[in-house]
Specification:
This protein is about 65% helix and about 0% strand. The protein has about 120 residues and is an all-alpha fold. It has eight helices and no strands. About 20% of the residues are buried.
Length: about 120
């Protein structure tokens, strides 16, 4: 599925980030064999670190901060908290989408999201 990465790169260079995201997700689905083996849907050794980084970059450009935070957990050799913190602090989510919270298993990221959300909702003093 090198063609999926190549098409995604072309779309990213053209500034069509939504289409780039679509190609990267298709490549990830093909690489992971996620339609036949459910347990292999997420590992970065299957996706490849480069593909996860590209997905992360496109998600940030599309202002999809919660999906980007989820992807930061999937980078190998371990979660990249600094990248996740930078993304979440530069583009704090206006509201927490509960659909993504179940996929954030790193406690420091959950704590940061809680803090950012509470800060955004509290009245200014």
């Amino acid at each position: 599925p090198e063609w999926g990465l190549a098409l995604g790169e072309l779309c990213e260079l053209d500034g069509d980030y939504a289409m780039a995201l679509q190609y990267y997700l298709q490549t990830a689905a093909i690489n992971s064999n996620c339609f036949t083996i459910r347990a292999s849907c997420l590992p970065t050794d299957t996706f490849g670190k480069e593909l996860v980084r590209r997905l992360l970059a496109v998600a940030v450009k599309l202002h999809l901060v919660l999906p980007a935070a989820v992807l930061c957990q999937c980078l190998s050799p371990g979660p990249e908290y600094a990248v996740a913190y930078q993304i979440l602090q530069s583009q704090p989510p206006a509201k927490l989408d509960a659909a993504f919270l179940e996929f954030i298993w790193e406690v420091p990221l959950l704590e940061l999201l809680t803090h950012l959300y509470a800060t955004a909702r509290s009245p200014s003093k």
